[in-house]
Inverse folding.
């Protein structure tokens, strides 16, 4: 409490620069960035953290997050994070990736980093589309969902079904903590923050691999308003991608 | 001075090991030495040979076109290797498994039943060392004592292997007389 | 020691802190050696899931300021082109070893020199160069690897050691490097956590107006500097030669023998053996080309360095070629025959066009 009897209730996190974000209105990335910055502040690890930015909408993460950041080639973030963490085991290392980066071109790197139990935190922002390149079909695009490259809707015959990353990674022995959250409202934001807190705490304690999948709105390529796209996350996306803790303390959790 | 040696046999007969052993021993005598292995694509069995070149001058190719000495552990491609013998070259043949009976004019042939002798000594795998003893009798690239010393430095295999190998070396040397 | 092991030991003695590799013949001895030796020294070894991952792990470790290396053979190096371009773009130091085998495609597991273009002209996208070193002996496998780490740190560039299966698998006695590792420069750009400083960013995406153009000028400046300072080559009997052999790696080693054999037959033959394939000893070759009657390029490919030699000879002397593209290493006799068959050019030596056989 300061001398004017005013209390600080809300402020820009230390870990965030004052640059205006380039993300579209209603996009989940800006929220995810802000909460990530808050978590790094609260855990007091920002000055020993190295992040890996993906190829995709979040490639400019280094403009906004006030920590050391490396780019990675498309899909290779988990391998780059592995290299950083192994070279500097006492630093906190995370990758921040979208669905195309993590689940399509980088699936091998994703699975093998998880399978080795790398002591890193993977933040997976799933919005079911390639945003940066113009809204193409992603591995997580829902059946029937329209995108630039499945204009008549995703037809699983020939295009496959949406890929469930948490479920896939949960089949491995090594991961320590896996959770999926949804940015579909205030509750979702708070759950995301809790999940990120948990994931980084796991890494700080040296327990091993943690993955937080964030179901996130992309109003631009959902071709919806911001509030409609929150509903889309809340209903359609959560139908396909159940929101829950999949693995805690290295043990698979029941649905 | 230039000595080009080819050792040929089947995988598992210790041709490559013998080549390494010779290269190691010769290191104190020759300023330039190369060793080059050639395995087949098979992981087990198949043909296997290697080349050792010892020289007083720089060695351009570790794979000599001609051989001053040839150690034939078995029949595989034996005729082809014999054709590579240089004038005055020496072929040492394991007569237990290789039936080369003659070499071109101006080359020498020494035949000893190395595999049978190694069997008698209690270790079929020591046939390669028997062959080394025989080679050194006719081509003293280095002394028997130096060879012994290197054999002593080999990673010890089964118990008693060292003694058998040392006896194999002497046996080969005597049998080739 | 085999060439592969000598190289691995060189990396260890150069202070390589992180090694990432994926199995491929004919360089498996290298990965095996590192898998035993790196953890024993408390350093990092990972067998990665692919060459794409291996080079990306190198990227991460290098970004964190560590001396990092990966090794592979031709098909694996093709996969690494992505990472090499990113390393060059982000100005990260790293050492990459290519123990070449036959190609294209799976080709064969036999030694070859078919990756000259890919290495020297840079096989990834964008305007970049790697320093490329070509060892000809087991000793050079060791020494040039140590030198590679020095160069990488000094210029913040990826450096490639371009060997082949022949040198990788042969054994020769060598003298191991006993001194300290090359001095490690300060790396204020490294990602170590932004404690008490502004955050660092390792990136190659430069979309601000004029940003990329400026960045490329910086890279080109660096390359100019390397061209001025770091050219290495060997020569043999060039002072009076009429025929100049130009060869690298395994072929250079053979050519050294051929020079002796040809001289014994009364033919005045010399050899230029570039150790740095990039930067290429351009001035030296120009000067020699102006003096000799014939040039003969010998490679285990269909004529790759040949194009650089032709470009630099500028028609001062005819450039002949003897190539062995089948993964087979030629014999000295074969090369000697090609040398002995060369006749002085019929017209005046100042003809404009080179002859390609």
């Amino acid at each position: 409490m300061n001398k004017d009897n005013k209390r600080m209730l809300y402020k820009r996190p230390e870990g965030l620069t004052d640059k205006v974000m380039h993300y579209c209105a209603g996009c989940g990335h800006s929220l995810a960035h802000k909460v990530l910055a808050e978590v790094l502040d609260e855990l007091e690890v920002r000055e020993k953290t190295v992040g890996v930015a993906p190829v995709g909408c979040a490639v400019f993460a280094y403009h906004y997050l006030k920590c050391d950041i490396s780019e990675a080639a498309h899909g290779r973030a988990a391998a780059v994070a592995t290299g950083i963490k192994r070279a500097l085991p006492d630093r906190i290392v995370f990758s921040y990736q979208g669905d195309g980066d993590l689940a399509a071109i980088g699936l091998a790197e994703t699975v093998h980093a998880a399978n080795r139990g790398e002591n890193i935190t993977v933040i997976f922002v799933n919005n079911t589309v390639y945003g940066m390149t113009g809204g193409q079909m992603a591995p997580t695009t829902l059946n029937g969902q329209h995108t630039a490259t499945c204009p008549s809707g995703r037809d699983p015959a020939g295009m496959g079904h949406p890929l469930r990353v948490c479920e896939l990674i949960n089949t491995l022995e090594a991961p320590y903590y896996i959770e999926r959250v949804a940015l579909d409202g205030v509750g979702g934001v708070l759950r995301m923050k809790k999940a990120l807190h948990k994931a980084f705490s796991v890494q700080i304690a040296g327990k091993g691999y943690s993955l937080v999948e964030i179901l996130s709105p992309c109003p631009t390529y959902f071709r919806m308003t911001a509030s409609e796209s929150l509903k889309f996350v809340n209903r359609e996306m959560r139908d396909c991608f159940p929101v829950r803790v999949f693995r805690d303390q290295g043990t698979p959790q029941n649905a | 001075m230039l000595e080009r040696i080819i050792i040929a046999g089947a995988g598992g007969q210790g041709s490559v090991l013998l080549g390494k052993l010779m290269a190691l021993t010769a290191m104190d005598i020759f300023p330039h030495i190369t060793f080059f292995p050639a395995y087949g694509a098979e992981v087990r069995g198949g043909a296997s040979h290697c080349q050792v070149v010892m020289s007083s001058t720089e060695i351009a190719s570790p794979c000599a076109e001609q051989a001053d000495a040839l150690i034939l552990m078995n029949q595989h491609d034996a005729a082809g290797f014999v054709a590579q013998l240089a004038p005055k070259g020496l072929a040492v043949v394991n007569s237990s498994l290789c039936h080369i009976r003659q070499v071109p004019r101006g080359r020498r042939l020494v035949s000893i039943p190395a595999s049978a002798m190694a069997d008698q000594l209690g270790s079929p795998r020591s046939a390669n060392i028997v062959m080394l003893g025989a080679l050194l009798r006719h081509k003293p690239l280095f002394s028997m004592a130096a060879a012994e010393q290197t054999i002593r430095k080999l990673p010890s295999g089964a118990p008693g292997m060292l003694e058998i190998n040392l006896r194999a070396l002497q046996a080969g040397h005597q049998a080739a007389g | 020691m085999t060439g592969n092991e000598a190289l691995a030991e060189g990396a260890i003695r150069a202070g390589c802190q992180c090694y990432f590799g994926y199995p491929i013949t004919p360089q498996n001895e290298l990965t095996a050696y590192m898998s035993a030796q790196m953890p024993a020294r408390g350093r990092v070894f990972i067998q990665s899931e692919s060459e794409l991952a291996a080079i990306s792990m190198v990227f991460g470790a290098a970004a964190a300021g560590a001396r990092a290396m990966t090794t592979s053979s031709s098909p694996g190096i093709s996969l690494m082109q992505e990472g090499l371009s990113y390393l060059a773009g982000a100005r990260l130091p790293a050492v990459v070893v290519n123990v070449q085998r036959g190609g294209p495609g799976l080709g064969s597991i036999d030694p070859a020199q078919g990756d000259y273009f890919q290495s020297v002209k840079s096989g990834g996208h964008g305007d970049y160069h790697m320093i490329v070193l070509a060892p000809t002996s087991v000793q050079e496998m060791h020494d040039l690897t140590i030198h590679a780490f020095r160069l990488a740190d000094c210029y913040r560039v990826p450096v490639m050691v371009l060997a082949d299966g022949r040198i990788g698998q042969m054994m020769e006695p060598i003298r191991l490097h006993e001194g300290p590792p090359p001095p490690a420069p300060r790396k204020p750009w490294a990602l170590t956590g932004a404690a008490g400083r502004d955050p660092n960013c390792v990136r190659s995406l430069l979309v601000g107006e004029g940003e990329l153009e400026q960045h490329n000028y910086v890279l080109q400046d660096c390359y100019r500097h390397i061209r001025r300072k770091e050219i290495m080559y060997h020569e043999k009997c060039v002072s009076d030669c009429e025929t100049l052999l130009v060869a690298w790696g395994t072929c250079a080693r053979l050519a050294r023998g051929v020079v002796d054999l040809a001289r014994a037959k009364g033919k005045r033959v010399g050899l230029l053996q570039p150790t740095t394939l990039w930067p290429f000893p351009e001035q030296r070759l120009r000067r020699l080309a102006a003096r000799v009657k014939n040039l003969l390029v010998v490679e285990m490919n269909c004529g790759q360095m040949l194009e650089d030699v032709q470009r630099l000879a500028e028609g001062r002397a005819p450039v002949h070629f003897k190539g062995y593209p089948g993964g087979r290493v030629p014999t000295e006799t074969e090369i000697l025959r090609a040398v002995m068959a060369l006749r002085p050019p019929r017209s005046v030596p100042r003809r404009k066009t080179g002859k390609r056989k």
Observations:
- Chain B has one domain: 2-175.
